[in-house]
Amino acid sequence: MSASAVIDLKLGDLRRLEEVADREALSQLCRSFFELFGLSIRVFSEGGALLADVHEERSICRYVNTLPGGRRSCAATVGEVKGLRPNATAVHPCFTGAVYRVTPIEYQGRQVGRVVIGPYLPIETGQVPKSLLVVDPEVQSEEARRHLEEMPRVRAETAIRIGEHLRGIVDLLLFASHRAHLTSEMHIASVRESYRELTEKTERLQQAFDQLKELDRLKSNFLATVSHELRTPLTSIIGYSEMLASGMAGELNQEQLEFAETIHTKGDHLLELISSLLDLSKLEQGSLKLARREVTPSDILHDVATTLIPRASKKNIRVQVESAEHVGTVSGDPVRIRQILSNLGDNALKFTPEGGTVFLSAGTTELDDHEDGGSGHVLFGASRPAVEFVVRDTGMGIPKGELPRIFNAFYQVDGSSTREHGGVGLGLSIVQRLTEAHEGTIAVESEVGAGTTFRVVLPEQPTEG
Amino acid sequence: MQLDFKARELTVKLVYYGPALSGKTTNLQAIHRLVSAEATGRLMTLETQDDRTLFFDLLPLTFKSKDSGPQVRIKLFTVPGQVMHNATRRLVLQGADGIAFVADSQKSETRANQVAFRNMLDNLKEQGLDPNQLPKVVQFNKRDLPEIRPDEEIDRLAAKGEEPVFKAIALRGIGVRETFLGLFERVWWKLEEAHALKEKFGLDPNQFLQEVASRLAPPEQTGVVP
Q: What are the CA-CA distances from residue B173 to residues A139, B33, B107, B141, B170 (Å)?
């Protein structure tokens, strides 16, 4: 809490009247009492600051101030009245016979100021008092009497009542301002306290986030190391089983040959899996190097189709490449683009039942740099020509709820241990990361029972000139 | 506590803590009715929404001891009960000399009471106050409702617990005086121990506590209507 706060929030205390009193409101209040009773009214704070002052100079005051002795005594009286700190309402006499009534203003058990009413003449005043006649040798008794008669006369109890009412209304004004002040101070303090709390929480979250990031990095490192270490012995297993099967170590009987070939095939599968893991960790670390050159979409599509056809025909699935003519070229790593499309093609084959079709196509489209759309899109978005590769199947489809997660590494739509289709759930994750490495985008649409369409959009190779 | 030697003034802060709707504000309203006009100011309620306290309520009490002793000001605060106002609760706890924990007697509120009490301990610690050192009392309010925790159970647990326990129907002013005096007494002895008020101000604890008690009229004399 700031030290400069007007109010001590701990105790909700009001320290100084001048800090919360609305001087304008106090002056108006005093003016209204003045108009009602014709009495001068002043409000002082405990420290002596004049907060409201509505008065009319009385003719007797004007008169005595024309005389040097009167001026001195008047100043002295006014000084005395200002210095008064009575505990209860009290009167202070003036040498003219008039009095000032001083009523203390208490707030929450503390004196915070006082109301001064007067000067006025007590109702019982008779003759011109001696103190007035002797104040200066020049005082004219008759003139003084005439002036004095113009002074308002008030009963003591009336003056007390006026003082009491005024004090009561000042108290109400103070209460209202005090509450308004406390409320606004409390507002600010609460906001500040909530902010402090949030800042602490954010810091803790940031720390947790940094730790997780570090763990993720370690995980990727671990994957890379392990994959590498696994690959080395696996290469030997594959090589030796291949040599064994080819009869280099002597003729094998049928059963031995089958065993050796099984070792070889399973070894290949394992190698593929390990390569995927290695790819993924490289992609996650951003250390995958792309060997970019100009790639012609139709060539790539035919390549991919050729690798898919043998397996497709086993399942009696048609692979159909749709026209990809008049499509621009893409700047990318042909091996990786082929990997993207074969992965998608493999998936399509895997989830398409017998007699189905897998379509491969390429077309021209545009790629938005500023993806969000919405407000200001027309200003911030920039489109550039791009090539859209589409892999569409007539397979089982993916339920809507699963779509947002299919690109997560190790995620399987059917995560059960008894699932029908193999794989570790790395394919789509790698496809997505490879696409992003090419500054492209990938999207999926699917309808359960009708099939799935993947769209990979890669920026077109800029034409020269 | 705030001590102003020059002004011979001493200010004590007591906080009424508890879950939402347990009757903290009602306690202050009842005390306001009990105390004579010259000893109390207006009950100040800072911001409410649908009759619920948003910031705090504040009731100032002033006791001037006889023969020119110091003036003792007691400031009673409530906290907003709802969970979301924790920052405000923490602010109100600052500088508290004692706490009256107002629990809701209804069985259904048992858990809310526990949550609020734990929250209070956490907030005290966060304010750098030692919860074990701070005088506390517990009030079981709303004794007139059905489905409340039975007297026998409360008495049994209270006997083992550390804080004095009071039962109340704050709406009717019952038990409010006892809770306040019970807390104030504990707070005053603690302050006496720490600041030697008798020695410094000539304030005799027994006498002063009696004086404070006498200024709070027992409820039957006030004609309080529920």
A: 67, 9, 22, 10, 5
